[in-house]
Automatic annotation (TrEMBL), chain B:
GO BP terms in the entry: tRNA processing
A GO MF term: metal ion binding
Record has Nucleotide-binding as a keyword: no
InterPro entries assigned: Archease (IPR002804), Archease_dom (IPR023572), Archease_dom_sf (IPR036820)
Protein name: Archease family protein
Length: 477, 135
């Protein structure tokens, strides 16, 4: 382990105050011995940087998929006092409300004789990759509604049903959204990209439920062994990216205005109650809503293809849940015996609210919030449930994915996209991508084992395993 | 062109070196375009941009952010850059051709230009910097 880190338990490690100058609280992260082999010093430095930010509560946290990013480490979680704390785009990232949703179908793998054709049709229906443009022609007014109403806008436009809204984090809409803080530039990036998947690690996958670990929770979430599911991973596209770029400029000035000392410019921030902090939060929430609407429109495209090609009904394709994994939220948490209003930043981390939380859909409240953890291409994805342990220890947060171990350039040098396609094909997993490079960059070997990552959060109780899903077909952005 | 990709787990970290600031900005522009697109582009369309900023780093960050924005919104693969750099301001002419997936496809979407670790250093007779593209 890296010098200065203190072991606190089988899966818990601490960066003590003093690891770098200016830390207000310790850093705390969760890793198995196996996962410590892939821990980078850069990621720990970033975890320590977050601990220097004003108003941080208890710990700068990182989940077992921690890796080196910019600003916060990926896998980073931090809560800030509402009255004295700050908000930072560095704790959210450029891809605001990048997230995942899971859909169930009444199909089983034997119904997928036309799998290649289904994948081809999905690839045609959902624009993917660099330069892909939407076939939708959003008006200014529609874009405004997309930013204020999120998934509700998409459903109102005919791209879904009311159950979709119920089964979305925040019901698919952050009420604090204020499009007045979304620039013309951000809007011009957002208009042609609504309903597009993007590139990089974004994907659309046909999966099958391979194993159930928790029968009651699976039944509650409507998930059965052998069922074909669809998983979508994407975010707020260019609109969200530009919101981050624009507000970083403003917040850089706020750092000196409010006399904030920071070790990294990417952590530029402002007090939550300041005009600059409120402006970023309003713009970020508008971008988050755009992302929920975007995933909802893609859901409609998936349903259209599956109903046409497999004869099932539109509403037979059911949304289990939709989670954000790059976002800042105002939440209430029990802290030192009192209910306090805080701003929780989750950057590459998933909300994991436990049973009884008012924000969990009514039909799921007795088991907790569904948590969706996508695997890397060709590897297992997982459905988990939120817990009281997460509420008490991590501000209701858990991991978000596998976490990279190889850079994209290392992956491309080491792995040939064509070989990956063939290897996965032999395992019955079809892959479609705009080019082979996208496949190599996101190859399974470029990532930590998703199984190892989820076993840490399961064993710690930060979320509990419900089901394992295996890929049958992948569309890479 | 003098830029090389260095290892960064999550994103694309580019190391750029040039004899002067114009060369540094030019190579940084090419580094961004080579990340996003493949294949050759011709300088048949032109866009002008002006960026203001308090330091050379602000100007470089502003230029790359503007290049990313123009490329994405105008759907142009830029291949030539012309600069006028003075204290607090950069004027740039960007030239390129419309994105054609058959020619230029195969790159990676860049979400934004990070400030993480961005500093321009004068080393012996050249300028050098590392820039992180969020992908």
């Amino acid at each position: 382990m890296i010098e200065g880190v203190v072991r606190k338990g089988e899966y818990e490690w601490e960066l003590p105050v003093g690891f770098i100058p200016g830390m207000h609280v310790p850093g705390r992260f969760f890793l198995s011995d196996e996962l410590t082999k892939t821990l980078e010093e850069g990621a720990l430095q970033q975890l320590a940087h977050v601990a220097t930010m004003p108003g941080i509560i208890h710990n700068s946290l990182a989940m077992p998929d921690i890796h080196w990013g910019y600003g916060f480490p990926i896998g980073g979680v931090a809560a800030f006092e509402y009255e004295t704390g700050v908000i930072s785009p560095g704790g959210v990232g450029f891809d605001i409300n990048c997230g995942v949703r899971l859909l169930t179908t009444p199909l089983n793998p034997s119904d997928l004789a036309q799998k290649k054709e289904i994948l081809d049709n999905l690839f045609d229906a959902v624009p993917v990759g660099v330069g892909a443009r939407s076939s939708l022609r959003l008006s200014e007014k529609q874009l405004e509604k997309m930013m204020t109403d999120g998934a509700r806008f998409a459903v109102a436009e005919g791209y879904g049903n009311s159950d979709d809204i119920t089964h979305c984090e925040e019901q698919g809409r952050m009420k604090e959204a204020d499009p007045a803080h979304v620039s013309r530039k951000a809007r011009s990036r957002g208009v042609p990209q609504s309903g597009t998947l993007g590139a990089g690690n974004h994907f659309l996958e046909i999966q099958v439920v391979e194993e159930i670990y928790d029968e009651e929770a699976a039944r509650t979430f409507g998930v059965e062994q052998g069922q074909v599911c669809m998983m979508v991973h994407c975010g707020s596209r260019g609109l969200g990216h530009q919101v981050c770029t624009d507000h970083l400029q403003v917040l850089e000035h706020a750092v000196s205005k409010y006399h904030i000392q920071l070790p990294d410019k990417q952590l530029a921030c402002a007090p939550l109650t300041s005009p600059e902090g409120k402006a970023y939060f309003g713009g970020m929430a508008a971008a988050a809503n755009y992302a929920w609407a975007n995933r909802q429109i893609i859901t409609h495209q998936i349903r259209s293809v599956l109903t046409r090609m497999s004869g099932i009904g539109y509403d037979d394709i059911r949304l289990v849940y939709d989670v954000a994994h790059n976002v800042a939220k105002i939440e209430e948490h029990e802290i030192d015996g009192k209910t306090r209003k805080v701003c929780v930043h989750r950057k590459g981390a998933t909300r994991a609210f436990g049973p009884g939380c008012p924000d969990v859909p009514a039909d799921y409240t007795h088991v907790g919030q569904p948590v969706i953890i996508p695997g890397s291409m060709g590897s297992s994805s997982y459905l988990l449930k939120g817990t009281d342990v997460a509420m008490n220890r991590t501000f209701g947060s858990t991991c978000h994915g596998a976490g990279r171990v190889l850079s994209r350039s290392q992956a491309k040098k080491k792995i040939q996209g064509k070989n990956i396609r063939e290897t996965l094909g032999r395992a019955g997993i079809m892959v479609k991508a705009p080019h082979d490079g996208a496949i190599a960059e996101e190859a399974p070997d470029a990532y930590k084992s998703s199984s190892e990552v989820v076993s840490v959060v399961h064993n710690l109780g930060l979320s509990r395993l419900v089901a394992r899903l295996e890929p049958l077909g992948v569309i890479k952005g | 062109m003098s830029f090389e990709e260095r290892d960064h787990t999550a994103d694309i970290l580019m190391h750029i070196r040039a004899a002067d600031t114009i060369g540094l900005f030019t190579d940084a522009g090419h580094a961004l375009m080579k990340t996003m697109y493949r294949g050759p582009a011709r300088p048949i369309e032109e866009v002008s941009v002006t960026i203001t900023g308090q330091s050379l780093e602000h100007l470089l960050h502003g230029f790359l952010s503007e290049l990313l924005f123009e490329s994405e919104v105008q759907n142009i693969v830029f291949c030539e850059f012309e600069f006028q750099i003075r204290e607090g301001e950069v004027r740039a002419i960007l030239r390129g051709e419309p994105f054609d997936p058959a020619i230029h496809g195969g790159g990676t979407e860049v979400k934004g230009i990070s400030w993480y670790g961005l500093s321009i250093r004068q080393e012996q007779n050249e300028y050098a910097c590392d820039v992180l593209f969020d992908v």
